[in-house]
Amino acid sequence: MGKLFAGEKEKLIAVCIAGIDEYTQTGYIDTLTEQVDDLGYKIVFFTTFSSTCMSDDFLEGEMNIFTLINYELLDGLVIFAETIKDENIVHRIVASAKAAKVPVVSVDHPIEGCYNIVYDYRGAMEKLVRHVVEEHDFKRIEYIGGIPGNPASQERLDVFCKVMEENGKTVAPSQLHYGYFWSKPTEKVMDEILARDAQEIPDAIVCANDAMALVVCKKLRLAGLGVPEDVVVTGFDGILETSYHTPKLTTAMMDAEVVGARIFSILAALFENREVESTCLLPFTMIFSESSGCFNTQQDITRNTIVQELYTKINENHYMTNRMVMMMAELLACSTVADVRKRLRAFIPNMVAWKSWLCIVDGYLKDCPKVEEILNRPAQCEGYTEHMNCMLRRDGREYGENIPFLKGEILPDFKRDMMLCSKILIVPLHVLNETVGYFAVSYAVDMIEFHQMQNFVNTLSSELAAVRVRLEQKTMVETFKDRSIRDALTNILNRRGFFEKLRKSYGESMESGRKLALVSLDMDGLKHINDTYGHNEGDVAIRFTAEALTKVCGEEFFCARTGGDEFMAAGIVDEELANSFGKKLAQEFYEYNAKSKHPYRVGFSMGMIYELVDKGFPVAEYIRMADERMYVQKAEHRMHKDYIGR
User: Dihedral through CA 130, CA 135, CA 138, CA 142, nearest 10?
Assistant: First the structure.
């Protein structure tokens, strides 16, 4: 019985494969997608777009997707380890699967303890070389290999030399070259070959892969030599470009349909407890075509068809690029997370998939992140959090938002959705090695173009990271702005903050015709407290004054510490509230002094002006009038025998 599903035939298979925008990997995904329907299995692809030319930081961000796998849910796992490249990652995946007792099928990369599907590279290369040497009997044959010392490169070179020697042809060092499986080194090799005298140009060049073979054909054409009329060329791998090349390239290719069928036959046998051999050797499909003077029976693709296909792709990519530019502009204008979700709804349907999930790490996007969270957060998030958030889920025309779920679930309602769509593909969202989340889609053949999907997820990752930065910058700016208008000791407004609010209240009073109350307050005897009991006690008295003033101000007034022992308050209030202000404040001071065990009393002198604002009187004039009344009261207090500091 399956681990996730109740039925005997319902099995969940995970497939780990990297570089899905490459032709071969796309073929594997499409083949597995088509074949799984006939079996009734469910399949989830954990995938990346990365290639070996990416930086280590970028690869780290991509490869995090393989940490998402929950092996406890799986009935089987397929790994295309040769695409992943990193042996440590491959080892972790396989070890985790074994620990959960999940059988592993490895394709094109033998792994101990797994069921291995291995291509017969040696046999395919031998057929290509024999075709050139034995069937065409060329005399001057040269070889362009891959990377010196690379196992795959060395194996193909050994096969070339073996077949040549078996046919009595000596292989001199001058016949062997290294193109490093890439275009630039191959161009250099061809420049050296073409610099020879005409009679020393080889009549056949065998290449270790198609990419180098296509460069050879190009350089020969530019030199005025025909393929195959003057020089025969062969490749290896069967990459997409060979389908559009003139002449058609003689090569060997892996058959994705054969691989898919073998994968599922192995898994079916294992699910039925039948015995399975640990290693299965698969032959390549041989394509003997025009570049070696042969013509296969496959239907030829006309030049007009090629141009039409390429033109369609160019138009599609142009449309997608424009959409991504629009998405960047839309997200740039977002000031809230809700706004981000709303605007993304217009662009996620571009992925065509009927179902999709945008999942981000917990707490990645917040409207009002706390300063402490921002400052104490690690430099980058290096993996998925235990709690994840499905920021946006598309289910046909319906959308769900902000759905929390556990990483181990992979997706919210994962079982339900696998029952409904049976094939889900997941790709990482990241900026270099900083994990943003992942994007998942229900997958169907010919519904999603991986180059366009790569454009979408890369743009989405960058923009989500940019939105995060903007939201955090907004918090930091508002925090610093708030601190710039607040008194550090009391946390109430300072002089600058007070006058900013007072100017607004002044204008509101003038427009509304309501009276403005303006309070000027001085602490009594602060210097005496500081000089006699120390500045720490003086700070205690200042803080109490701020607290008492804040309490009395309530919602109607606002207050500030405008100097050492100077405070102000203001508000557009009714007459009763204005008249009771001083009494309420005096009561707060009385109760504090009665309960306090300090050897001193805290007191204040206050002046208030409560008038209808007249534009003929500037703010400064009202402040002066309030100060005058405060100084009158202070003079009266100093005459009293109990004045603080006497």
Answer: -20
